[in-house]
Amino acid sequence: MNAYIVAAVRTAGGRRNGRLSGRHPVELAAEVLNALVDQSGVPGEAIDDVILGCVTQYGEQSRQVARFAVLASKLPESVPSVTIDRQCGSSQQAVQFAAQAIMSGTQDIVIAAGVESMSRVPLGAATNAAEGKTPMIQAIRDRYSIKDFSQFGGAEMIAKKWGFTREDLDAFGLESHRRATAATNSGAFEAEIVPITITLPDGSTDLHVKDEGIRWDASLEGMAGVKPVVEGGLITAATSSQITDGASAVMIVSEKALKQYGLTPIARIASFTVTAGDPIIMLEEPLYATDKALKRAGMTIGDIDLFEVNEAFAPVPLAWLKHTGVDPMKMNVNGGAIALGHPVGASGTKLMATLIHALRARGGKYGLQTMCEGGGQANVTILEAL
Q1: N or C: which end of the chain has fewer CB within 10 A?
Q2: Residue 230 has what pLDDT?
Q3: 253: how many CB neighbours lie within 10 A of its CB?
Q4: Catalytic residue among 54, 177, 208, 372, which?
Q5: Catalytic residue at 177?
Q6: How many other β-carbons are positioned within 10 Å of the β-carbon of residue 38?
Q7: Cα–Cα distance for residue pair 104/51, rounded to 1 Å
Q8: Maximum CA extent, the chain
Q9: Cα–Cα distance for residue pair 357/371, rounded to 1 Å
Q10: How far apart are CA 349 and CA 298, in angstroms?
């Protein structure tokens, strides 16, 4: 059985303490749920489940935040929901769980979504509130001879392993901003962005419709002046994903639902997988997950028209390009998280919305999306645009 996507939306990203910081994460999630219902025309009561990714499930994002998002939306209270955490791949995993439900025949309409207000609920907030308590027990430290796992450390290891220079990373970061600028100016994001009403400091209201993190005047000279995150390292804030507020969602349905509600699919989920590897270098796993996913799908890298590889740190997509041999012009064609932001729990369905609309705009057929994740895991989803 096939799983089809009939709508894919996202909010424009909000910078840390920026334009979206005044909106509660439950409100942001409810906005994208409502947009899916409006776009698809599917009756709310027909939705079998909502699977929502969220990484920092604490404070305003606690107590099974997906349920609160449903209750704040126009969906009836009879729609169930669940919150999941696979770190940066949380909402991409939500898609894969939803697809499994559809393909098994146990459900017909499932929303996969994600939300993260990194201004209001910073990464690590739950650990800090617990006075530094962590799942990193001594047995794990002994197994890996390490005090703790570090994504910054892993990114630096990738840069060194694959031979990238500071100049390589800066050039990649600049290109992300240039592509995001071009995509925004051309209206490439308009079909996927849900306008969010915000209140400005003077009390007036505005619609948030543009990704706030784009540096419209980015330059190599400016990037070269940014200090490394780690002393003696290569990675800077300019070559790292931005702390971002946002939400995103896709509606996934069965062939039965397509016929019953007269829906027009925009994509088909062709294949998906999730893998795990070294938790120390950790962010390198998308390289090997891509190999496994293509083999599982019976495809080659040449069968894919466009790629979305999350720009957690510049060395990750650069290493992925070097490993796969993909033409850089086919990857992150509208920019990535360095320019557009990385609202961690929402990034999976955010990238998927962008990938689907980019494929359709270019007349492409297949797209592949992959995401590095804390702990050394990676999701890969292959889509067919319709």
Answers
A1: N
A2: 85
A3: 29
A4: 372
A5: no
A6: 13
A7: 16
A8: 60
A9: 18
A10: 24
Residue 54: active-site member: no
Q: Are 385 and 360 in contact (CB under 8 A)?
A: yes
| pLDDT tens digits, 180-189 | 999 999 999 9
Instruction: Show the tokens assigned to 309.
Output: 């590889």
Name the band, by pLDDT with cuts 50, 70 and 90, for residue 129: confident
Give me the phi and psi of 244, to 5 degrees please.
-145, 150
CB half-sphere exposure, 59, CA atoms < 13 A: 19
Give the Cα separation of 223 and 137 in Å (integer).
Answer: 38
| Token pair 């392993």 in the structure block, residue | 161
CA 52 to chain centre: 12
Long-range CB pairs of 121-127 (<8 Å, 24+ gap) are 121/25, 121/56, 121/58, 121/59, 121/60, 121/61, 122/56, 122/243, 123/55, 123/56, 123/243, 123/344, 124/56, 125/56, 125/58, 125/59, 126/56, 126/57, 126/58
Record the pTM: 0.97
Query: Of these residues, 177, 208, 342, 357, which one is catalytic?
Result: 342
Neighbouring-strand partners of residue 271: 382
Q: What is the DSSP string of 311-352?
A: -SBTHHHHHHHHHH---GGGBSTT--HHHH---GGGHHHHHH
